[in-house]
Design a protein that fits this description.
Elements (H helix, E strand, L loop, with lengths): L17 H6 L7 H10 L4 H6 L9 H14 L6 H10 L6 H15 L1 H17 L3 E2 L1 H12 L11 H17 L9 E2 L7 H14 L19 H12 L4 E5 L4 E5 L6 H6 L1
Antiparallel strand pairs: 1-2, 3-4
Helix pairs in contact: 6-7, 6-10, 7-8, 8-9
């Protein structure tokens, strides 16, 4: 793991189209193999994607795009703690269900568009009580940011906006967060207790200076309603995975393990 470069945080604030290439992979869990390979031998991942065709992609052009997306949005780390957490999370002993949520939160940290759609569109509709979500919901959001008069304006074409929206929902379908088929109905989304602990460690990476979890913008991506989060976390804090204090307004979280060791504490 020596020599792995950490991301420039400014790069992680840029919009990219990596969603459509990541979501185009038939079995997203194969990306876990790429992550593990990255830590074993950093320069081996491009060969796995392009030469050994890990994802069974026919077109070399598409393999190149997928390789770019993985390097842009998956094999990036905001700091050493993030790197250590991801390295531990995708080992064999971590249950696949928990890896799925970990991958979601890792992608949220690294990809601004994926994070914003998840927090500003997907989870808002999920918690609103609506039974379904459509590509039009996501298209409207992407169009709005695509035309903003600011330096981060990506200026995407109509076709790109459409593909980003449909591919986002495709990935949510693969996560089993929504039903397959044309109509996307929400499934019940609930992380395991262990995954919820992992979420707190990702949340601390996103906003390290914010101890009040209610003020962390990543909270909706936990898929636990704000009114339920206190009770869920109180039970887990008693097991020593983190400390918490609640004064009726702020729910402050203090991590008790390193990002490197939390997985061992949870799953050993």
């Amino acid at each position: 793991m020596e020599g792995i470069e950490l991301s420039n945080n400014e790069n992680l604030s840029e919009y990219s189209t990596a969603i459509k290439d990541i979501a185009g992979i038939k079995d997203y869990s194969l990306i876990f193999n790429i992550i593990n390979a990255h830590f074993e031998e950093q320069n081996s991942t491009s060969s796995l994607v392009s030469d050994e065709n890990e994802f069974d992609i026919r077109s070399s052009k598409t393999r190149t795009k997928v390789n770019w997306a993985i390097n842009k949005s998956i094999l990036q780390f905001v700091n050493k703690d993030h790197q250590d957490l991801v390295h531990a999370l995708f080992q064999e002993y971590v249950p696949q269900q928990d890896k799925k949520f970990a991958f979601l939160w890792h992608f949220c940290l690294n990809d601004r568009l994926f994070r914003e759609i998840t927090i500003q569109v997907f989870t808002k509709i999920y918690f609103s009580g609506r039974a379904q979500i459509s590509k039009e919901d996501i298209i409207a959001y992407i169009k709005n940011i695509s035309v903003k008069n600011e330096p981060s304006n990506p200026g995407w074409s109509e076709e790109t906006v459409y593909r980003l929206a449909t591919k986002y929902l495709s990935l949510m379908t693969k996560f089993d967060f929504v039903s397959s088929g044309r109509v996307k109905s929400f499934n019940h989304i609930r992380p395991t207790p262990e995954a919820l602990v992992i979420f707190l460690y990702f949340a601390s990476l996103f906003k390290p200076q914010v101890t009040n979890i209610f003020e962390n913008e990543l909270l909706p991506a936990s898929f636990i309603a704000q009114e339920d989060i206190h009770d869920r976390l109180k039970k887990l804090s008693l097991k020593g995975f983190f400390n918490m204090s609640f004064n009726g307004v702020a729910l402050n979280i203090e991590l008790t393990h390193s990002h490197k060791d939390i997985c061992n504490a949870l799953y050993s």
